[in-house]
Amino acid sequence: MAYTSAEVRTLTPVRENVERRATVPDLRDVFLCHAWDDRKGSAKELHDVLESLGVSVWFSEKDVLLGSSLLREIDKGLAKSRVGIVLVTPALLRRLAAEGIADKELSALLARDLLVPVIHDTTYESLREVSPLLGSRSGLSTAEDTFADIAAKLAELVSP
Questions:
Q1: Across residues 94-99, what is the average pLDDT?
Q2: Which residue among the candidates 19, 105, 144, 156 is catalytic per the annotation?
Q3: Per its UniProt record, what InterPro entries does this chain match (predicted)?
Q4: What pTM, to 2 d.p., does this model score?
Q5: HEC profile for 55-124?
Q6: Which among 133, 139, 137 is positioned nearest to 157, based on CA atoms?
Q7: What span, in angstroms and rounded, lies between the C-alpha atoms of 71 and 65?
Q8: Pick the CATH number of 5-21+28-158 from 3.40.50.10140, 3.40.50.970, 3.10.20.280, 2.40.50.140
Q9: pLDDT band at 45, cuts 50/70/90?
Q10: For the chain, domain boundaries
Q11: Which residue, 48, 76, 141, 159, is most buried by CB atoms nearer than 10 A?
Q12: Is 105 known to be catalytic?
């Protein structure tokens, strides 16, 4: 698998954090932060590809049960995940600007320094207009790699 130098710079500190948290019990490999509008499209696609590679994914569509508190379940999911994947799409950019739930997830992930942005159908320039902090991090992009290639890189990142 080939990585760009920017990907190496981004993923190395995340990998170090993954290794430090490897002994914590009951952790999911990744928390998938996404816009509500993407839950049945690109977010589900990324989730399915990651799980097919053996990556355990916290995904609101399957992990928040009917009748439970969405924010509380998200909080637990964030605490019990090794790495946060932020799926940056036009829908997410709209949600972040509106300061919705995705904005709260992003704030928690930025504070922990355990996140990898995945840019899909948008650009870093558009991201920086809405979230300069997230936009300052290099990550992975579907403009350069397929979801399958991105998922393979993420699977390698979180593997023990």
A1: 85
A2: 105
A3: TIR_dom, Toll_tir_struct_dom_sf
A4: 0.86
A5: CCEECHHHHCCCCCCHHHHHHHHHHCEEEEEEEECHHHHHHHHCCCHHHHHHHHHHHHCCEEEEECCCCH
A6: 139
A7: 12
A8: 3.40.50.10140
A9: very high
A10: 5-21+28-158
A11: 141
A12: yes
Based on its alpha-carbon atoms, the radius of gyration of the chain, rounded to whole angstroms, reads: 14
- pLDDT exceeds 80 at position 152: yes
Position 111 scores a pLDDT of: 83
List residues bridging with 88 in a β-sheet. Answer: 119
Give the integer Cα–Cα distance in Å for 116 and 108: 13
Helix (H) or strand (E) holding 129: helix 124-130
Q: How far is 91 from 35, CA to CA, in rounded Å?
A: 6
Tell me the pLDDT band of 16, cut-offs 50, 70 and 90.
Answer: confident
Tell me the one-letter amino acid at 121: D
